[in-house]
Amino acid sequence: MAIQINANCKWVGKIDWELRKFHGEEYSTHKGSSYNAYLIRDEKTVLIDTVWMPFDKEFVENLKNEIPLEKIDYIVINHGEVDHSGAMPELMRHIPNTPIYCTANGEKSLRGQYHKDWNFHVVKTGERLSLGSKELVFIEAPMLHWPDTMMTFLTGDNILFSNDAFGQHLASECLYSDLVDQGELLQEAMKYYANILTPYNPAVTKKINELKALNLPIEMICPSHGVIWRNEPLQIVDQYLKWAENYAEDQITVAYDTMWDGTRQMAEVIVKGIVNAAPGTTVKLYNLARMDKTDLMTEMFRSKAVLIGSSTVNNGMLRDVAAVLEEMRGMKFKNKKAAAFGCYGWSGEAVKLISTRLGEAGFEVVNEGLREKWAPDGETTDRCFEFGQQFAVNIN
Q: Is the pLDDT of residue 208 over 90?
């Protein structure tokens, strides 16, 4: 069902209450999500984005209830990823000649995914499309978070359709940011930024500064996922600038996997050492094999330092540890410190391998790590406690 945003614009998207995984199995969406599309009516009518393909027929049928499809003059696709463009093949079956406005990379994306010769119109930053009394202004935003991404600004109503930027995976019957739980909103917005946009921090900073330099009178930000920012909408823009500057709180995250509990016991004592040396620092401890990986990346995003632990198996580390380290490498975290720990029975290579991988992932490795043989005893416990204390001292 469509929701009126103002006199000229309606939300015509889809709330996905059941979604729990996104980007394949990579991103957890505990709160569901939405695929936001918008219908603008002036002298000309424009549709901005569509929805994910599983909802394509539902989307088109609902759109027909709002307007005869042939009355849609233009389609704007801000980003070609399938959660935004998935209903395009079904929609274009009905209106095959309707002009589609997108970036040059957007055309490549849409052609590559759907193999259709639609009526593409490539636009660049600053180009405008008249709707009658209002105009759309196109703003390229490459790597926020794909090369094809752009934003679209509606003059007069002063709405920025920001696509993936400023979004959250949050399903809600309340369409607006001021109507939802503010703590939940900030957490989901941070999780979204941490896992999707962190690798592109420099591009985020550059584009937001360019956006601010345009001096657009933004009164509302309509992203492609989650709720619309209407009260003080620039709060999320300022938050992005803060997050993009190699964000860190006074937090240390300790994450491990263990075979027979030795590495777990080490982790728990190390945490006690950290707390003893830095009682004001937030310390979070996770068995990473049992921890949601998207949530874990969010905690690492918030942290000034991390400790990664693993038992040694087959001259290497446990597989969930290896997978997390690979994900950490892809995040391109900066200005964060780290170290490794773990116990072993035979050869004990895991700690050295983890330290190497942490360095490759961009972390400053502050020591050679702590490796202990067999199950921890009293002397081992003392060393773990001291290791935690020294780590807390070394990162400050």
A: yes
